[in-house]
Amino acid sequence: MQELRKERLDRGVKVRCDSIYAVSSLKEVMFLVGPGLALVLILLVLPLVVSPYWQRVLSITGIYVLLSIGFGFLANYVGLVCLGGALFVGVGGYLSGIMNSVGVPMILSIPIAAFAGAVICTVLLLPCLPLRGVYFAIVSFVYPLLAARLIAATGIFGGTDGIAGLDVLTNRWFNIYLIFFVLLVAIFFMSRLVNYEDLGLVFRGVKDNEQAIIASGINITWYKAQAVFIAAFLGCFGGAYLTHLYGWVGMSLFAIDFSILPVAATVVGGSGILYGPLLGTFLLVPLSEMMRDYGTLRIVFYAVILVFFVVFWTEGIMEYLRRKYEQFEHWVRV
Amino acid sequence: MELIIYGLVNSISLILMSIGFALAYGVSRVPNFAHGALYILTGYMTWVFLNQFGLPYLLSIILALIVIAVIGYLLYQVILIRVRGMPISEIIASFGVGLAILEFLRWTGLRGMAHMLPLFVKGRVYIFSVPIDYQRLIIIGAGIAVLTLLWMFTTYTKTGLSLKAIAQNERAALTLGIDSDRAAAVAVSLGAVLAGLAGVLLLPLGNIVVETGYEVLVFAIAVSVCGGLGSWKGAVLASLLIGFAQTLTVTYLASHYHFVVALLVIIVVLIAKPSGLYGKQKELEERV
Predict the structure, then answer these.
(1) Domain for residue B222, yes or no?
(2) What is the pLDDT of residues B13-27, one digit of tens each?
(3) Do the chains contact at A127 and B288, CB–CB below 8 Å?
(4) Closest chain B C-alpha to A287 CA, distance in angstroms
(5) I need a surface site. Which of A21, A45, A71, B42 has the fewest CB within 10 A?
């Protein structure tokens, strides 16, 4: 029997763009900036063509994208598995809500909540940062559960009813473009950070070989704390924004959806690059929105997809697409 | 006196909840984050066998334990075996499975007070004039029995010894012809049975609700982290420590703080001695 194997070769344009710095034609320029540009264009046009209901869904999707980028960054560039996206959302949301309820205007309360929330989350997670292994996942998973328990039991911050009557972001065009703008800034900033900056190099070193990093005289706890701060900042901003989207904060900010969907999105989208989580979120959130009538079956659905991708299709969709974009494949005889 | 007796009951409950997790992690190095889900699932299956099919209580318990053993085995053979050695994927995959089970049960209507397992034996006795019901006495007995059996299993049987060998040094065990995947599958399966057993013993004291699944997972993790991940001696000691700490806070503060105690223990231990009480040999490895 004739045996075949698949051979993959880089496309010519990819090779030229990689090795020759003077990019010489419009085609090559488009090859390099095309995907980013397409993303910006899609995000600009998408809100114009959907109904107000789906615009609201897109705003929520934006929040999940921020969480997913944070998760993907921590998991794949720093080596920390964070099962507690809900912690970031909850802390950011509650901070902003509390500040707003005592009279701080939204324009101040959202950024302050994002920053202060990120500091709080980093401090909360600090004890498990010097360690390797499953500890970070464990602790970050426990905090949101604990926070919800404490709020329900002690009745602080409005207890089970939450705090209602906060300021609401009323202009829906502003809402949606605000979150899209933030997520674009976040994704471009992060891909610059991890690919071209020294800090990104240290992060990846921490992921691959912590002992080598320590041997270089670098304090890994400090660097991990910085990474957690970045991810927490995105999550806390998402939480604060969500608070003012509804004008309400409550225990649902600590719901497990915020922890699990980013994980699923990152795994589905592809973990190698930062665009993966974005793609995964834009696939999963609308899907789960369509399944709204089925209640918690949605979570079962993400969980099953999650396990399937982790076990059987580890590279994820984005990595697959990137391969198709950069390389061509053909069968050759062995 | 009341404090000592109920503290003991609580500690034994914690041992039962966490020993399966500790076993699976200690041997296969796979943190089985589906542990809490297996606990609830066994309770629910027992309930189904008992109430929907009308089987006798003992038979439904045994059937549920057999089914959970098969599920644990399949969990390893189908899913976890493919992601071994990749900590991120291991956590995500097992957590995903647990989440799927728990939320599916919630969707099928497992909420509220509708699902209860009957007590094994009704009634209570007075020990030093402290009232204690028979179920809690059974729990103490069963906990001690489980520990003794496990100790005998890992000290005197060939399978048990091979589990220990894999836990200590996987490569050396492989060179001696021990099949590490088989041993790990047995360990995960046994861990599932232990989780199920804990569920069957402890669930009659309350309702079968999904939230308990997450709680059990957190308690199991708290005990394992405190005792040193994968160390059984540590797990027993940690259970006693956390169990009494919980009983003290519940008696002197308020009942909803027992969850907070578990979390505080995790954090304090991670700061003070990250390898746990008995995790000496892995101290360096975990430190960084």
Answers:
(1) no
(2) 888 888 888 888 776
(3) no
(4) 17
(5) A21
Of A170, A182, A141, A161, the residue nearest A252 (C-alpha): A161
Which residues fall within 8 angstroms of residue A25, CB to CB, at 6 or more apart? Answer: none
pLDDT-derived band at A188, boundaries 50, 70, 90: confident
**Closest chain A residue to B88, measured at CA:** A81
CB contact under 8 Å between B107 and A83, yes or no, is no
Indicate which of A310, A312, A313, A315 best probes the interface with B, i.e. most B CBs within 10 Å of its own CB.
A310
Of A131, A141, A294, the CB nearest to B274: A131
Query: 208-227 in B: which are within 8 Å (CB) of A?
Result: 214, 218, 221, 225
Q: pLDDT digit string (tens) for A128-165?
A: 887 776 778 878 888 888 888 788 777 777 767 777 77
Look at B103 and A297 and tell me if their CB atoms are within 8 Å: yes
Structurally, chain B folds into a number of domains equal to 1
Strands B124-127 and B130-133: antiparallel
In a domain, B245, yes or no: no
Number of A to B CB contacts under 8 A, please give it. Answer: 118
Is B252 inside any structural domain? no
pLDDT of residue A40: 84
Domain definitions of chain A by residue range: 4-333
User: Does B226 reside within a domain?
Assistant: no
Residues of A in contact with B87 (CB under 8 A): 81, 133-134
pLDDT tens-digit map of B93-141: 888 888 888 888 888 766 666 677 777 767 777 777 777 777 888 888 8
Tokens matching residue A201: 């190099």
Neighbour-count burial for A159-184, b at 16+ CB within 10 Å, e otherwise: eeebbeebbebeeeeebbbbbbebbb
Q: Which value does ipTM take for this structure?
A: 0.76
pLDDT of residue A276: 83
Helix (H) or strand (E) holding B283: helix B283-287
- Give the range of the structural domain holding residue B85, as residue numbers without chain letter: 2-217
- To the nearest whole Å, the CA of A176 is away from the closest chain B CA by 31
> CATH: 2.40.50, 3.30.70, 1.10.3470, 1.10.760. Which one for A4-333?
1.10.3470
Evaluate if residue B68 carries a pLDDT over 70: yes
